[in-house]
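Hi W., the 3AM complex you wanted:
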Amino acid sequence: MNSDYLVGKVIGNRYEIVEKIGSGGMATVYKAKCHVLNRYVALKVLKDSLKFDPEVVKKFNTESRAAARLSHPNIVQVYDVGESGELDYIVMEFVDGITLKEYIQNKGRLSWSKACDFAAQIGRALDCAHANNIVHRDIKPHNVLMARDGMLKVADFGIAQATSSETLVAGSGGMGSVHYISPEQARGGFTNERSDIYSLGVVLYEMLTGEVPFDGANPVAIAITKLEQDPKDLRIINPEIPDRVAEIVMKAISKEQHLRYQSAAAMVSDLEAVIGTVHAVSEEIEDRFETKRINEQQTKEEYAMRRNTRNKKRQQIKRNRLIVLAVLAALVIGILTFSFMSGGAQEYQVPDLTNMTLEEAEATLEAAELRLNEKIEYEPSDEVEEGRVIKQNPGFNQYVKKNRKITVTLSSAGEGADLKIPDVENLKYEDAKKRLEVQGFKCELVEEFSETIQYGYVIRQSPKAGEDAEKGDTVKVYVSAEEETPEVEQAVVPKVTGHTESEARSLIAAAGLMVGEVETQESESVEGTVIAQTPSAKTGVEKGSKVNIVVSRGMSTPTPTPPQTPVAEMKRKTLTITIPDDANETVHIKVVANGKTIHDKTHAKSEGTVDIVVQSSKDASVQAYIDGKLVVDRVISFD
Ligand code: 3AM
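Structure:
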């Protein structure tokens, strides 16, 4: 991945490309270090093959302009749009996390409350975009990034364009991804905000069931199914889904636009009603970040080495610059003044906090790399609900420095109102404590075991919410304590398919796991090769868990077993096929050795590589095809 020619380069005199993150349809995304603001950013660069296509460049620019207008905690913030030599690029907020697609793939399916919480977050992003007359048109899990704290951020306004009325999306250029696009997009018809609501419905369906509602062998088949058929009832796939949740999904994915939610806000409000105020902050995703964290550590080390060399060069450059500065002092001062005034150091825009609870305001500020001033102001208000933000300082949309503390004024019950105990049940302990303390109460922690309430959350409180109280009263909060179960060590299931049974046994043992059931099955793969495993490779499991394997017993032939000698001379070699980065999510791999098909199977792109054992007594001419395309054509020597 890091072998990209841009890695190590500095773009626009400011952004040092650290590593390639991935690539989408039109552009490649890099992690870069901004040397002016000393932070990581994501840099999206138009692909080489597309940069001379004026239509694509125009679309790329439209994306940046559209997205730059949006500022919302659930939208990837666009910081800057630039051009350097032949490079067109967009500088965005770097989201340290994974895509929602990866998350769904890892999980299979999500609990209904988490799925609804995620859908509400995406819905809030859409609501903000729609309020700015921007339709995303390509809402899909791959375009939703999940930060470490579980906050979702919608990215890639790839085919978004400003619209104040319904817009005709025609031709392939305007199409989103076929599984998620609305029927009207599939027909090349009019699209509007409700097309995004449809796509969000599909994403919610997938989160709840692990399946997309319309599938088919190819894009045309999927589009036809979408236009003509009703989706499978999601409660048949997952009976745990509450009826109300299923209704929300079905309304969002109505074929007719007028039957869908008329606004993202309406869908969010139904979702919020169904989940209450639960904000699922995912702790389980932490382990999924482990690999990324390791990569990041390596990157940091590489980066430190490069920085040493660069610092030396920079010192020399600095000396030269001083001379130039002395001569051109006046001019340089002018430039510096200009760059300061145009916001050089003041690049962080203050989000709107009005009507938020303290917890929401704090999370929103954190996402915007700002801080909440611990000193909270109070004011009585008739318009704003008690405990919610009435005003803030500095105000919405002002530019401030990173980590600037923002002071909020919360609505108090009003001068004459009696003081009541606030409701802190179901809150995280820290949030409950803060809520009590800011209202002048003392908080006493009592730990208690609970089978239903998550660790660290308040089970109950005494006195109860709503009871009369006086400033300085103590409120006991009973917080769910951690179960005293021994810490479970985690392990990652190794990939054992393609290996011999004994190799597989060693790999499984080396990963701290145990071999479970061993089945044999007739298969075209070489006898003794592992052809399937559960759980699949890269799954995170408890140490000591079992991995079941299926071992090939070759193909049974009706003819009597041939004489022993030729078999004894057979030798094995492993051919590793790498699935390219730009491949589809699933690929079909076929391998032919000496004219005989020895492998013919569909694989997930996430497998990365596929090992095929070739068995022959003499040199073998081997061809491998990925989705029908020849990718390997060589002779394997068995000397
Ligand atoms: O190729 P994968 O799926 O791993 O998550 C996005 C995707 O990763 C990532 O770049 C790839 C191509 O879209 N990506 C996009 N925008 C990003 C951002 N702002 C980002 N990663 C971090 N921060």
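Confidence is low (pLDDT under 50) at residues 159-175, 277-345, 564-568.

W.
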